[in-house]
Amino acid sequence: MEVIICPDAEAVARTAADLFATYITRDTCTLGLATGSTPVATYKELIRRYEAGELSFKNHQAFLLDEYVGLDRDHEQSYYRTIRRELTSHIDIDDNRVHSPNGMSENPSEAGRAYDDAIKEAGGIDLQLLGIGTDGHIGFNEPGSSLVSRTRLKTLHPQTIKDNARFFGSPEDVPIHVLTQGLGTISEARHLLLLATGEGKAQAIADTVEGPVAAVCPASILQLHPHATVIVDEAAASKLKLARYYRYAYDNKPEWQQIQKA
């Protein structure tokens, strides 16, 4: 795992966009996209670079981490529509090449298996973007999730329902189930990119990077991945014991210097 500590959230977004660009400039690639507040700044930077003529997404495709059960993909609060608002409607990617789990399936278990199969048929995900919760969850894999889990039905935590009520009008309107990629599915991506900003994520980042690999912190699965990058600001890095080493390693890594000069 490589850990990159940036001075602030804006620098996190720029650095993440630099990494995205190394994939987007390929002839084709498959991106894994996440919703939530943290990735938004990175998406805005990618849109800026697209509008400046620096990037094109038209030969690429994308898979989302999760989707509400019971919401059509065209529902205003579906994650498919959310990613359109935040990114894909502003760039030149084909809408038909942006995939999400089928939240309207009468058989969610089968829909989960079908989604995993679709990812495999696409050749797998090249770069998977991840956010992290204060309890260490990624996707909707809450603490206690199996480290080898697949895309499956999950029940939302009551706090998550309460937090999401602002988008729906009331807690009663929030779907209580989602289809989410499992930790095993996520781990099959060739490169994992986790972003975190703010002091509220500091303990989760410390547990992810320096704690034991355990279901109590689902994001700790990144420690077992052959190519995982964690990009955080100073606040989110504040509880890392080896922060000084991470800075030294990043400053002396030739490939990152090349990326930044590109």
SSE arrangement:
Blueprint: E1 2-6, H1 9-24, E2 30-33, H2 40-51, E3 61-64, E4 66-68, H3 79-86, E5 98-99, H4 108-121, E6 127-130, E7 152-155, H5 158-168, E8 177-180, H6 183-187, E9 191-196, H7 202-210, E10 228-233, H8 243-251, H9 254-261
Parallel strand pairs: 1-10, 2-3, 2-6, 3-5, 6-9, 9-10
Antiparallel strand pairs: 4-8, 7-8
Descriptive tags:
alpha/beta, Rossmann fold, globular, Glucosamine-6-phosphate deaminase, allosteric enzyme, identical protein binding, hydrolase
Query: Roughly how much helix do the residues carry, as a percent range?
Result: 25-40%
CATH first level: Alpha Beta
**Termini gap:** 23 Å
Number of helical segments? 9
Order of helices and strands: EHEHEEHEHEEHEHEHEHH
Task: Give the mean pLDDT.
Answer: 93
Total number of beta strands: 10
Number of domains: 1
- Unreliable spans are none
Can you list the strand order of the major beta sheet?
1-10-9-6-2-3-5
Q: What percent strand?
A: 15-25%
Shape category: globular
- Which class do the helix and strand fractions yield? alpha/beta
Q: Largest sheet, if any?
A: 7 strands, parallel
Cα radius of gyration in angstroms: 18 Å
Reported by name, the CATH topology is Rossmann fold
CATH architecture: 3-Layer(aba) Sandwich
